[in-house]
Write a structure and sequence with these properties.
Length: about 500
């Protein structure tokens, strides 16, 4: 029986569990060895899965950094947190946040690494943040408020300048922040931002309040581009015969003629060796993170806190990595919206069956209620996410029948402006500008190689999923649906109007 089902008074009478939320940026679900990838080495994540459990059908409903982190930190769906695309500079002002609830519940709260909120030093309920948001397009402008400028809010860069000289910058390697171009890190490994994130997390363990449980968010910038792992990790996969990207029968091959030489394109690359090198560097970045997570776990063990600490590992979204001639995120495909979610409970406090691969649909909005449940803290009624604890404890097999995902984007034949309905078995996609549709049998076609939208035997099921999307979009301000049909060609927006009002105050 799961301990969380006991009365809250019983839970609070015992020593409360520490919570470590490990977040990575732009990591695909299929880049964990224990998830079935034979090519990548992830011994720490494999251990976490073997000694804990993994959600194998987890998604980011709006797969880019800002909206994904909004879901993670608020427990809300995109309709309520208001971010349905990527837009910097929009103030985060939410009544309830994940760190805020832990703060109010008596936890010492700390974030190390990437936040990607606005303003940059918005604490969101954390007692303190130590920031490295990586290369921030919005923040690189010297016209911004000094506290939002990258020199004022990037603590990693500030530290690196002290270590390596005042003229040092994170762009010294010449690599683009959204690109398939890669190279080894230019300094010794200890100066890498992945190592720094763990070093700062360990330092928090030294200075935390010893009389409080802690909630620590260790948030890595990698494996988001640029792919610049330390030399040993860059070399780890360079001679490995990695598989070619997945290529669907629907892939737009003509895009390579126009975009295939652009280094920051989202459309792919014409040079096969460059794609292979990018995948090798991407895998190396993930293995580097994996080893550093082991370092953090060891530090918690040495402080005799390991068996009273629960870990969750999650990514904000994925990376297309050349699949279907596409790179980056934003897309409704598995490489972009499919994410890993792992729970690791070394002390077996939750009494969950170990080494579970759970096929239930999960989304980033579920992390907040799940962690509050684990900590024995109240779950606000306003949240859209649901606790995953009953699933992990075997009390139910799933908490939802489908997830509605979306992302605003450019107006192109297979552009990024899209909506999708995904279930445990299949996926329906609708492109907002053109009205084009796609349908995939994920059970038999997990890599989305065949678009079955015109297959005769699928029409009834496609109609069912289309009706779900019509219902989800009915009443939305963009007028994508009138309640009976989908309406393409409507003006897209990255943020819904209510996010600019006082609704969250």
């Amino acid at each position: 029986m799961c301990r969380l089902l006991l009365p809250i008074t019983f839970i609070m009478s015992e020593k409360r569990m520490n919570i470590v939320l490990i977040c990575v940026d732009q990591m695909r679900r299929d880049c964990v060895h224990a998830f079935g990838n034979p090519h990548i080495e992830t011994p720490t994540l494999d251990t976490m899965k073997h000694e804990g459990c993994a959600f194998t059908h987890a998604y980011s409903a709006v797969p880019s950094c800002i909206p994904a982190r909004a879901a993670l930190l608020t427990g809300l769906s995109q309709e309520h947190h208001g971010r349905v695309g990527y837009q910097d500079g929009v103030t985060w002002d939410y009544a309830r946040t994940l760190p805020g609830e832990f703060h109010a519940g008596g936890y010492h709260t700390q974030c190390i690494g990437k936040m990607h909120v606005s303003p940059a030093r918005n604490l969101l309920g954390f007692h303190n943040v130590v920031l490295n948001d990586g290369y921030m397009h919005h923040g690189r402008s010297y016209k911004e408020n000094v506290f939002d400028n990258f020199e004022g809010c990037n603590d990693y860069l500030y530290w690196l300048k002290k270590e390596k000289g005042i003229d040092t910058d994170i762009i010294d390697d010449g690599m683009e922040v959204n690109s398939w171009v890669c190279r080894p890190y230019i300094y010794e490994e200890k100066y890498h931002h992945t190592n720094w994130t763990v070093s700062e997390s360990i330092d928090f363990l030294r200075r935390k309040d010893p009389q409080k449980p802690f909630f620590l968010m260790t948030s890595f910038v990698a494996p988001h581009p640029p792919y610049t792992p330390p030399q040993v990790y860059f070399d780890m996969y360079k001679d490995t015969d990695l598989p070619d990207p997945f290529m669907g029968d629907w892939a737009a091959k003509e895009d390579l003629k126009e975009h295939g030489l652009v280094y920051n394109t989202d459309r792919g690359c014409v040079q096969p060796q460059a794609i292979r090198r990018a995948k090798a560097a991407y895998y190396g970045s993930i293995t580097h993170i994996d080893h550093q997570i082991a370092r953090l776990i060891q530090a918690i063990f040495e402080r005799r806190e390991l068996h009273n600490t629960v870990f969750v590992f999650v990514s904000d979204h994925g990376e297309m990595l050349g699949d279907h001639n596409l790179f980056r995120k934003f897309r409704p495909y598995e490489g972009s919206c499919g994410i890993p979610i792992l729970f690791y409970d070394p002390g077996n406090n939750l009494r969950i069956r170990k080494n579970q691969s759970i096929p239930a649909l999960a989304e980033l909005r579920d992390i907040m209620p799940t962690l509050l449940d684990i900590a024995g803290l109240p779950i606000p009624d306003s949240l859209d996410g649901q606790s995953l604890v009953p699933i992990m404890c075997g009390e139910t097999s799933h908490i939802r029948d489908y997830i509605h995902g979306e992302h605003t984007g450019e107006e192109s034949p297979l552009g990024m402006g899209n909506h999708f309905i995904v279930t445990e078995h299949d996926k329906y996609i609708w492109f907002t500008h053109t009205g084009q549709e796609q349908y995939f049998h994920l059970d038999t076609d997990p890599n989305e190689l065949h678009n079955a939208i015109r297959d005769a035997g699928c029409q009834e099921r496609i109609s069912e999923l289309r009706s779900l999307l019509i219902k989800e979009l009915a009443g939305r301000e963009e007028h994508y649906s009138d309640g009976t049909q989908l309406i393409p060609g409507q003006k897209q927006k990255p943020c819904l109007s209510h996010i600019f009002s006082d609704i969250n105050k």
